[in-house]
């Protein structure tokens, strides 16, 4: 089985793929001080509850936008799984082009989303990822990554609003019952929800105008189902898109066998 590790700014997702389907999907908050042994003990416990032995994991791949997390995640694979993980980066064999000025600067999650979306839906298309940042990733008909846009994420904006305005409370994200709020909380929810719907529709409209071709629009990220309710923009909501990108990249770049303990 393949262990795919998607390390983002907010959460790290660990997922197992048996060659046909995802067998497990677990997340833990991103903490740069967490050690490989903490990850290992946590992951082993979860595997045991699913009746899965760590010996069944024969490959591993790590994709991260948090460089500080990489050391202990790599050590987790080496010390707890006897595997040398593949690290997703600009030097990997993507099999598809990257039409940006500096490929090394592109967050690997964005390229993984593009890789998986093109494999699943063809192209051209744009992926909207509702994560810590809200990203817009453009892929052309041949599958090449063409860049996109980056906006503050929904929760990041919500926290900034609370921190900067003394009388505004910290609220949860949700679809408001009305655009016209009759109290502070509903007003904040309305501004956030419909504001982001407008932001997404506006940026995608501008991308389509610049690409001068019809584009499929794919939503991913934890808040994708919520915001897809507020617009007819999205043709697909694909919640495992980044993980599917890791799986596809691992297949393109066969990982090493169990590491040599004499090294």
UniProtKB/TrEMBL annotation:
Cofactor(s) in the UniProt record: K(+); NH4(+)
Pfam families referenced in this protein's UniProt entry, alphabetically: Pan_kinase
Catalytic residues of the enzyme: 109
Pathway: Cofactor biosynthesis; coenzyme A biosynthesis; CoA from (R)-pantothenate: step 1/5
Binding site for K(+): 129
Gene name, Swiss-Prot/TrEMBL: coaX
Compartment list: Cytoplasm
Cofactor binding note from Swiss-Prot or TrEMBL: A monovalent cation. Ammonium or potassium.
Main location class: cytoplasm
HAMAP family: Pantothen_kinase_3 (MF_01274)
Classification via InterPro entries: ATPase_NBD (IPR043129), Type_III_PanK (IPR004619)
Keywords annotated in UniProt: ATP-binding, Coenzyme A biosynthesis, Cytoplasm, Kinase, Metal-binding, Nucleotide-binding, Potassium, Transferase
Protein name: Type III pantothenate kinase
GO molecular function, one term: pantothenate kinase activity
Top-rank EC class of the record's enzyme: transferase
Chain's role: Catalyzes the phosphorylation of pantothenate (Pan), the first step in CoA biosynthesis.
The family this protein is said to belong to: Belongs to the type III pantothenate kinase family.
Record: residues binding substrate: 107-110, 184
Quaternary structure, from the entry: Homodimer.
Enzymatic reactions: (R)-pantothenate + ATP = (R)-4'-phosphopantothenate + ADP + H(+)
Chain sites annotated for binding ATP: 6-13, 132
Record-listed E.C. numbers: 2.7.1.33
């Amino acid at each position: 089985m393949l262990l795919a590790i998607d390390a983002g700014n907010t959460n790290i997702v660990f997922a197992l793929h048996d060659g046909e389907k995802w067998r497990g999907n677990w997340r833990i908050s991103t903490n740069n001080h967490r050690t490989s042994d903490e990850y290992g003990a946590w992951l082993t416990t979860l595997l045991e509850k699913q009746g899965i032995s760590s010996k069944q994991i024969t490959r591993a791949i790590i994709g991260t936008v948090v460089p500080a997390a990489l050391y202990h995640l790599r050590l987790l694979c080496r010390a707890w799984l006897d595997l040398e993980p593949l690290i997703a980066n600009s030097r990997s064999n993507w099999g598809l082009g990257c039409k940006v000025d500096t490929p090394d600067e592109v967050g690997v999650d964005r390229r993984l989303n593009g890789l998986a979306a093109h494999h699943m839906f063809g192209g051209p298309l744009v992926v909207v990822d509702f994560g810590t940042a809200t990203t817009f990733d453009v892929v052309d008909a041949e599958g090449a990554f063409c860049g996109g846009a980056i906006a503050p994420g929904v929760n990041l904006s919500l926290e900034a609003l609370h921190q900067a305005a003394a009388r505004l409370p910290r609220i949860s994200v949700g679809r408001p019952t009305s655009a016209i709020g009759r109290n502070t909380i509903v007003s904040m929810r309305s501004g956030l929800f419909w504001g982001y719907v407008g932001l997404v529709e506006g940026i995608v409209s501008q991308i389509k105008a610049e690409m001068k071709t019809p584009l499929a629009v794919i939503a991913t990220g934890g808040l994708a189902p919520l915001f897809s309710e507020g617009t007819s923009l999205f043709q697909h909501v694909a919640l495992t898109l980044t993980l599917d990108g890791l799986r596809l990249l691992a297949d393109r770049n066969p990982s090493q066998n169990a590491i040599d303990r004499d090294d």
